[in-house]
Amino acid sequence: MSRIIRILILLNCLLPTMLLAEGGREEEHVADAIEDLNKPLYSPFVERYLLDELKQLRIDQATTKHELMQQIVDREHNSVDRGVAYATDTVTYFFYLIAASTSVLVLVGWTSIRDMKERVHALADEKISELIHEYAGRLETIETQLHQKTQHIEENREEIELTQDVQSLWLRAQQDSSPANKITIYDDILKLRHDDFEALTYKADAVLELNEPQWAANLCHQALKIDPEYSYAFYQLACAYTAMEQFDEALRYLAEALSRRESYEEAIREDPALLKLINHKVFSGLTELISSIQNKA
Question: Which of 83, 186, 266, 290 suits 259 as a labelling partner, its CA being 20 to 30 A distant?
Fold first, then answer.
């Protein structure tokens, strides 16, 4: 390996010397050839020809260079034109694609929007119809309730007015001392309230004062048909039958009255309408008759 390196170094040193020696020899050879020339190497015609050829060569070279430059420029122009045309076509096609896609999307979207709009309208109409029916039912119920309440209020108002009128007539009857006037007032009460058993009974009391016991008894029976437990009607019947001297019936109705209201025991002794009954012999069986009625009850 070290031997090869020494050979390469020796060659590098000797190569320039050899080249210089060969160059010197060539220059000497050219100088000798020039000194041996006896006439010019070229004639004027030859020189002219060479100059013309050189000029033509330069012109052809310039023309060739110009044509080459023109071709290069044309190629560049063509390349630029193709690039611009490609870019223009690409952009145009891209915009066409966008326009087509947008049109499709618009159509599809319009259809979807229209369907959504129709569905929304249908759903809204359905909900509104349900609400209308619901609130119509509620309003009908409220109207019915209002009508019932109005009717009830009207009935109460009429009942209040009727009660006021009846109370006014009762006050008049209490203040009037004439039996005939009392009968007229009680008739007015019965015109307002046909089922007023109290008015019938108090009318019987007034009739008894006019010495009409049969009429009084009929009135008391009418009162008992309305209220079979009205004790004052039994009491008035006892008075009426005492006036007709039917003491057994009078005692029975008196027992009925006392079995329902014991406070009549004090009034019996003071009532002149029952005086004949009290003095009659059948009156002694009153207590037993009352007990019998209470046992049946």
Answer: 186
Nearest to 162 by CA among 172, 150, 170: 170
Q: Can you identify the CATH homologous superfamily of domain 179-296?
A: Tetratricopeptide repeat domain (1.25.40.10)
Question: According to the model, what pLDDT value does residue 268 have?
Answer: 82
Distance (Å, whole) CA 185 – CA 194? 14
pLDDT at 174: 86
Q: Residue 245 — left, alpha, or beta (φ > 0 → left; ψ -120 to 50 → alpha)?
A: left
Question: Which residues are CB-contacts of 270 (< 8 A; sequence separation ≥ 6)?
Answer: none
Would you list the DSSP string of the chain? Answer: -HHHHHHHHHHHHHHHHHHHHHHHHHHHHHHHHHHT--S-SS-HHHHHHHHHHHHHHHHHHHHHHHHHHHHHHHHHHHHHHHHHHHHHHHHHHHHHHHHHHHHHHHHHHHHHHHHHHHHHHHHHHHHHHHHHHHHHHHHHHHHHHHHHHHHHHHHHHHHHHHHHHHHHHHHHHHH---HHHHHHHHHHHHHH-TT-HHHHHHHHHHHHHTT-HHHHHHHHHHHHHH-TT-HHHHHHHHHHHHHTT-HHHHHHHHHHHHHH-TTHHHHHHH-GGGHHHHHSGGGGGHHHHHHHHHHH-
CB–CB of 185/169 below 8 Å?
yes
- Rounded CA gap, 31 and 36, in Å? 9
pLDDT tens, residue by residue, 74-116: 787 777 777 777 778 787 877 777 777 777 766 666 666 667 7
Residue stretches of the chain with pLDDT short of 70: 1-47, 105-114, 297
